[in-house]
Amino acid sequence: MNAQIEKLYNISSSDKKWIIGLMSGTSLDGLDIALCQITGAGIKTKVEVKHFKTFSYSNEVKDNILSVFARKNISFEALTLLNPWLSRIHAEMILSALKEWNIKPSEIDVIASHGQTVFHSPFRLHKNKEFGNATFQIGDGDHIAVHTGIITVSDFRQKHIAAGGEGAPLALYGDCLLFNEIGVPTILLNIGGISNFTYLPGNEIFKGALVTDTGPGNTLLDAVINKFYPHLSFDLDGKIASSGKINYEVLKLWKSLPFFSESIPKTTGPELFEYSFLITMSKEKLGVDLYPQDLLATLTLLTAETITDCIKREVPNWKETRKFGSGGGCHNKLLMSHIQRLLPGSNFLNPSILGIPGDAKEAVLFAVLANETLSGGNTNYGDNPSVCMGKISFPS
Length: 396
Ligand SMILES: Nc1ncnc2c1ncn2[C@@H]1O[C@H](COP(=O)(O)OP(=O)(O)O)[C@@H](O)[C@H]1O
Ligand SMILES: [Mg+2]
Hints:
single chain; alpha/beta; Nucleotidyltransferase, domain 5; 2 domains; globular; binds adenosine-5'-diphosphate; binds magnesium ion
């Protein structure tokens, strides 16, 4: 037997594993690295987050990704070069985090790498009958494995598509295993570049469990900041938006986009929610050209309303649910105040009260997915595709 298969077999058979979960979402803010100690599998999974760190992307990394990100016409050469290049950057970040935490790479069993989405194209977006759902992540797992010396599980989304899904959101799987409490219906909202939520009705067999994107999260807000306030990374606490005036006519126009009324589960990305497309729409249809602060004020409310409209429509008992909030958007005070006003009586808890900090949650969920691929695979997730996701790369 190949010694690496034997090592993998031993890791898979072990009840306790050290798994690094990686997440770099559509916000392009950086790479989240969560070092988790995971015991058990399936509904017996227990996670302890031992360390967490976000490495911000340098402008060079951001610009290189942006050159191929969510665009229809790109340099194929640039894409080809970026694929291994980004892996090496991620590998260096992992090694540097381990050094900081005083942990040797040989102590880590597995890396779970999401990669960087460069194009997300479900059928609902491209509508070309010849093709189905599609999504593409770069930052190949082989390169991470070789550069870190750690077995790497990566490219989780393809199997979900092969099994009939849109490749996203995958949060449901980890949410089912970590947050399901019998008799306690729960909503888990994540506001990354795009917003999504999981609903767990609180039964043993995940009957009625659902997950969907709702539309934009931080992506439109960040794009406006990038364009009009290039010295800033984002609208800290929603302060600039708070100084602007909401244009309700424009808000109504943007909310008429078909995506918002499509049935769930549905997924989207910056391919659709691109701010210049929305600006052109309001200029052409209403003759309105908003000042940057008014644009931010209106987009912040658009983000909040499309999240809460979807929750209210899809979760009739939303008032009786326990609610958790995660992702960078939960730090945006204005956005969260809109959401709480639109869902009266709601309090979005940080999942850190259950040991998983909101900023680390997505990276942790990928660590859990890798754990399932190696040691689980027996859980049925209700109406959602129940498959083991991810490809395994050996270091040598
Ligand atoms: N204090 C804050 N105020 C407003 N927005 C914030 C704050 N902290 C983080 N964010 C937003 O969160 C984004 C990062 O969120 P994240 O969950 O990492 O998204 P992704 O998964 O797409 O990478 C930032 O780009 C920014 O827009
Ligand atoms: Mg991020």
